[in-house]
Amino acid sequence: MTASLSTPRSDESSNAAVEQRTIGVGLISVGWMGKLHSRAYRNLPTFYPDLGIQPRLVVAADTAPQAQDYAVNVLGFEQAVADYREVLANPEVEVVSICAPNFLHAELGIAAAKAGKHIWIEKPVGRGAHETAEIRDAVVEAGVASAIGFNYRQPPAIQYARNLINEGKLGRITNVRGRFFGGFNADPNFPLAWRFIREYAGSGVLGDLMGHLVDLTHFLLGPIGSITASTGTYITERPAMKGSPDEGKLLPVENEDYANMLLKFDESALAAGALGSLEASWIALGPQAEYSIEIFGTEGSLRWNFERLNELEVAFRDENGAANYTRLFANPTFPDFARFQPSTGTSMGYDDLKIIEASKFLRAVTGDDSESSNIHDALASAQVLTAAEESAKTGQWVDTPVVPGNTSNTRKEA
Ligand SMILES: NC(=O)c1ccc[n+]([C@@H]2O[C@H](COP(=O)([O-])OP(=O)(O)OC[C@H]3O[C@@H](n4cnc5c(N)ncnc54)[C@H](O)[C@@H]3O)[C@@H](O)[C@H]2O)c1
Fold first, then answer.
1. Ligand 1: which residue has its CA nearest to atom 18?
2. Which tens digits make up the pLDDT trace of 187-220?
């Protein structure tokens, strides 16, 4: 189980002519994620030429005029508008990226599905399980494809880890330990943006980081069956936003900045019988984006950390019964890696994860067999987060029934 030397694989970067299909793209909100989705669409054909998909950036909507300018002059959209309804009414738009603040996701997601548009929507999809279920219902009723911004599923090292787990290389899974620790909200002088207000964000770090970690756990090990959780808010006040009527005042933070949970897997999960603990913080001093997961089994273990996304550490029992971690560099034998780089040790980055995500979404749109996350995965994650909020109030374990249609890692016979 050593990192292979770098032999470029020509099959993944074939120059053979492929029939091209143009897909009209609409974007709602041109912030961090909107720009990232747009770059992913633009770059997709160069990394996945064999898909024959040419995204066409038709129209972007943002209420901020400077974001509209950016969409046209920098990202290359043909048109930018203030009102998202113009995106949904445009017959040349086939897929819509929903990259707005959380409180708009339900309105936008439901309207997009009703307009017959396939949606790639950022997480958290709804403000809790109830709202996410409403979007799921609209997507199912409309019969449109969906993909969720669960980008931590996409690193080649994570996909490789999933293959190792599925091949039984870790033996029986005993436990998982995950922690998504960021320090991006650790400064108490950082203003009270929408993310700290329940009406606009829903939960705090639960929806923001724990949702990713729950999805990653589902993706690698299968559905979580029950949890107990605690949450805390340690920066309880923040300065009002500049230009707001309350500028100069300190206002209350309305959601949690730290959360933890203990979990048991559902009996259908690949890791049925295993236990785990997950933590998330967006006020952790020290870690930058220390989004990590460790999985332990009777024959081996593995661990991964987003700060070193091109590396996977594995430990397997040797003939003497000993096991030590070995560091594997992502390489062209890892899923999707050869699309980006022909050589081990040449790093991929965050933008590349979104290109992989786009490729899976657009494959789902064109009806090809796809490994895309979907709206059912969003509900599965949201359900665990809502259970965590309930458990944090009551101190009880809460069951999280399996959501049909999700793509979590189940036992073959389940
Ligand atoms: N997948 C990830 O890892 C990840 C990372 C960051 C953010 N996100 C999610 O992406 C979403 C957006 O976050 P962001 O960081 O890009 O936000 P952002 O603050 O950078 O951008 C939000 C944009 O929405 C625009 N907007 C506000 N109201 C609007 C309206 N009515 N119509 C159209 N546009 C409107 C704003 O003008 C702004 O340009 C959030 O749900 C967030 O949780 C996901």
1. 31
2. 999 999 999 999 999 999 999 999 999 999 999 9
316, pLDDT greater than 90: yes
Contact 64, 96 (CB under 8 A): no
Cβ–ligand 1 contact at 184 (below 6 Å): no
CB 37 within 8 A of CB 27: yes
SS3 378: helix
Ligand 1 in reach of 62 Cβ (< 6 A): yes
Asked whether the bond before 124 is cis by omega within 30 degrees of 0, the reply is yes
Query: According to the model, what pLDDT value does residue 25 have?
Result: 98
143 CB-contact burial (10 Å; exposed 0-12 / middle 13-18 / buried 19+) = exposed
Q: Judge if the beta carbon of residue 99 lies within 6 A of ligand 1.
A: yes
11: which 2 tokens? Answer: 């099959």
Edge to edge, the sheet with strand 224-232 lists 326-329, 311-316, 300-305, 289-297, 173-182, 275-281, 258-265, 224-232, 398-399
The full set of domains in the chain, from first to last, is 17-151 (3.40.50.720), 152-349+374-399 (3.30.360.10)
Q: How many A from CA of 64 to the centre of ligand 1?
A: 12
Encode pLDDT of 330-373 as tens digits.
Answer: 999 999 999 999 999 899 999 999 999 999 999 999 987 678 99
Q: How far away, in angstroms, is 32 Cα from ligand 1 center?
A: 6
In ligand 1, the atom with minimum distance to the C-alpha of 207 is: 43
For Cα atoms 373, 375, 377, give the angle at the middle one, nearest 5 degrees. Answer: 55
Q: What are the distances in angstroms from CA 97 to CA 42, 74, 109, 180, 220?
A: 13, 17, 9, 25, 26
